[in-house]
Amino acid sequence: MTMALEMNKLDTNKKVGLFLVSAIVLAVLPFVVGGLLGNSWLRIIDFALLYVMLALGLNIVVGFAGLLDLGFIAFYAVGAYTFALLGSPHFDIHLPFYITIPLGALVAAFFGILLGTPVLRLKGDYLAIVTLGFGEIVRIFMNNLNAPINITNGPQGINLIDPVKIGGLSFGKPLEIAGHSFNSVYLYYYFFLALTVLVVIMAWRLQHSRIGRAWVAMREDSIAAAAMGLNIRNIKLLAFSLGALSGGVAGGLFASFQGFISPESFGLLESVMILAMIVLGGMGHIPGVILGAVVLTVAPEVLRDVIGPLQMHTFGRMLIDPENARMLIFGLALVIMMLLRPEGMWPSKRRKAEFDDAKKG
Amino acid sequence: MDIFLQQILNGLVLGSIYALIALGYTMVYGIMGLINFAHGEVVMMGAMVTITVVTSLMGAGVNLPGPILVLIGLVIAIPACALLGYTIERVAYRPLRNAPRLAPLITAIGLSIVLQQVAILIWGRNYIPFPSILSHDTVEIFGASITVLQIMIIVLCLVIMAGLLIMVEKTKLGRAMRATSQNPGVASLMGVNVNTIISSTFMLGSALGAIAGVMVATNYDQAHYYMGFLIGLKAFTAAVLGGIGNLGGAVAGGILLGIIESLGAGYIGTLTGGFLGSHYQDIFAFMVLILVLIFRPSGLLGEKMADRA
């Protein structure tokens, strides 16, 4: 998919070739990963797809429209809780996923507007702080809305969330085909992949639409954009709500995939993580953002597997707790990456040129 | 009425600590136009270092009165935090002075994650108790009670803040700081070494943060590697409330926020008919922040600006 986005520079034959190759790679990927490394790694790939959706959503807000959002995880949370409350024994409501996921996306988009309206006049660091506060408010409410009426079940979270069911096929159970059993991570992989492709197409079409150009104009100079007849208020709210929309979809998927959610999963660190994905990947550049999301989901897991044994091997004992070391490396990576390559791993040509200009002058 | 006065007193204690931290944010913002996201971690480090010094002195059998022990801890924590502030500026901000605004924000967040993890490495994930060496005697004022320690916190905060204001207004360093905040280019033409001024601002703000950290630790009798985040966020809110970049504003905003928060926590149960309890206390700071930014983005004492960025 990432390759397919760079297609317009290539001739038609190569486009078709690239598209087919990426489609085949993505189609057989779960069998390669699951077969060679085991289901737990396929599970991580599934999470990578979720994060691709989240990062692309935040990219609409931060990358396209230039609005710095540090509370994006709130929309993920809203989507997840909508799904969980309407599909779990908690209220004993069991709506199917084709209702709850779109509904979660809509509720998240509504929250996007709710956040967007008061912060219309803010920019930069101020916007970052207010969105951060918004994210915390949502988390505090989730943590405390268990009394006097138990809505969110507080810090314990919601358990036994329904898996996605298509027809008679439940994603929660392994699928038996011709004597082979496929774990639910395989089913979720294809489901997530389909929705990720949808989100990529949405982001791609948006970027090259009238709205996308309006976002760029606003990002570069909102006064000039307003003078050109753009309704800044509307396009800002559109950015917030469309970004929140994909956050909400990813949230619903997360809830069903995990089967359990609690406020703990929606802290500030998660927001920072998603922001880091798009900044390290290449802000505003869809292939870069996808790359950033995949790298930042998979790399920490690899580290988790490597740090412990590596320490045992070299020192004969654990010097640093792997979780601790993992975060330490993550923090250092953020700093070093920004100092050495502030434009990200795979920036768009235009952005790269801007950074090169800034370095010269 | 007792509850009201009690909450006002609690708010004053909390507020003067917020004010001290808010000064660190506002000084850096005034000079560079950037929010120092790692400032909360400096506050945490100040508390941790002091506790470590005090505990190890006590462990070594040094028999001194509590306040002196804390003072010795501070004497070590203040330069340590000033050095930390200097390092933060050199690593996260100076190389990126001409980069887009998002870049220093990310480096600062990265550094604050690193500092938290370093704190976990040294002190672990658990709450660290503050040794009970300070008296918790209370004084009754019109039916409300306040500890001597808390009175000392308020007084000390006021003294430090007054000293800082005098320094900024009267001394040569203060004049250079004000010049740099107005226009770094022109200030350097007038012979001000802008880099030195920015470094000293970070160091000064961090030193205040260290003192505030110790106050938080003594007031709550504990410290934690994650304590910097929430208190930093609230102090930032205080700085915005008062008008960011304005020293007097940071003080006013801090005290006001402290009082709003304690009154809010004290009365939210009654106001909502028991629906929301005092565990929603943390929401008030964010609510205040959002409301201020909507209705008066320049803050209470800040100058009007055409375009806040």
UniProtKB/TrEMBL annotation, chain A:
<dbReference type="InterPro" id="IPR043428">
    <property type="entry name" value="LivM-like"/>
</dbReference>
<keyword id="KW-1133">Transmembrane helix</keyword>
<feature type="transmembrane region" description="Helical">
    <location>
        <begin position="49"/>
        <end position="77"/>
    </location>
</feature>
<keyword id="KW-0812">Transmembrane</keyword>
<feature type="transmembrane region" description="Helical">
    <location>
        <begin position="124"/>
        <end position="142"/>
    </location>
</feature>
<keyword id="KW-0472">Membrane</keyword>
<protein>
    <submittedName>
        <fullName>Inner-membrane translocator</fullName>
    </submittedName>
</protein>
<dbReference type="GO" id="GO:0015658">
    <property type="term" value="F:branched-chain amino acid transmembrane transporter activity"/>
</dbReference>
<feature type="transmembrane region" description="Helical">
    <location>
        <begin position="186"/>
        <end position="204"/>
    </location>
</feature>
<feature type="transmembrane region" description="Helical">
    <location>
        <begin position="16"/>
        <end position="37"/>
    </location>
</feature>
<feature type="transmembrane region" description="Helical">
    <location>
        <begin position="97"/>
        <end position="117"/>
    </location>
</feature>
<feature type="transmembrane region" description="Helical">
    <location>
        <begin position="273"/>
        <end position="303"/>
    </location>
</feature>
<feature type="transmembrane region" description="Helical">
    <location>
        <begin position="237"/>
        <end position="261"/>
    </location>
</feature>
<keyword id="KW-1003">Cell membrane</keyword>
<dbReference type="GO" id="GO:0005886">
    <property type="term" value="C:plasma membrane"/>
</dbReference>
<dbReference type="Pfam" id="PF02653">
    <property type="entry name" value="BPD_transp_2"/>
</dbReference>
<dbReference type="InterPro" id="IPR001851">
    <property type="entry name" value="ABC_transp_permease"/>
</dbReference>
UniProtKB/TrEMBL annotation, chain B:
<dbReference type="InterPro" id="IPR001851">
    <property type="entry name" value="ABC_transp_permease"/>
</dbReference>
<dbReference type="GO" id="GO:0005886">
    <property type="term" value="C:plasma membrane"/>
</dbReference>
<feature type="transmembrane region" description="Helical">
    <location>
        <begin position="189"/>
        <end position="217"/>
    </location>
</feature>
<keyword id="KW-1133">Transmembrane helix</keyword>
<keyword id="KW-0472">Membrane</keyword>
<dbReference type="GO" id="GO:0015808">
    <property type="term" value="P:L-alanine transport"/>
</dbReference>
<feature type="transmembrane region" description="Helical">
    <location>
        <begin position="42"/>
        <end position="62"/>
    </location>
</feature>
<feature type="transmembrane region" description="Helical">
    <location>
        <begin position="283"/>
        <end position="302"/>
    </location>
</feature>
<feature type="transmembrane region" description="Helical">
    <location>
        <begin position="251"/>
        <end position="277"/>
    </location>
</feature>
<comment type="similarity">
    <text>Belongs to the binding-protein-dependent transport system permease family. LivHM subfamily.</text>
</comment>
<dbReference type="GO" id="GO:0042941">
    <property type="term" value="P:D-alanine transmembrane transport"/>
</dbReference>
<keyword id="KW-0029">Amino-acid transport</keyword>
<dbReference type="InterPro" id="IPR052157">
    <property type="entry name" value="BCAA_transport_permease"/>
</dbReference>
<dbReference type="GO" id="GO:0015192">
    <property type="term" value="F:L-phenylalanine transmembrane transporter activity"/>
</dbReference>
<protein>
    <submittedName>
        <fullName>Inner-membrane translocator</fullName>
    </submittedName>
</protein>
<dbReference type="GO" id="GO:0015188">
    <property type="term" value="F:L-isoleucine transmembrane transporter activity"/>
</dbReference>
<dbReference type="GO" id="GO:0005304">
    <property type="term" value="F:L-valine transmembrane transporter activity"/>
</dbReference>
<feature type="transmembrane region" description="Helical">
    <location>
        <begin position="100"/>
        <end position="124"/>
    </location>
</feature>
<feature type="transmembrane region" description="Helical">
    <location>
        <begin position="12"/>
        <end position="35"/>
    </location>
</feature>
<dbReference type="GO" id="GO:0015190">
    <property type="term" value="F:L-leucine transmembrane transporter activity"/>
</dbReference>
<keyword id="KW-0997">Cell inner membrane</keyword>
<keyword id="KW-0813">Transport</keyword>
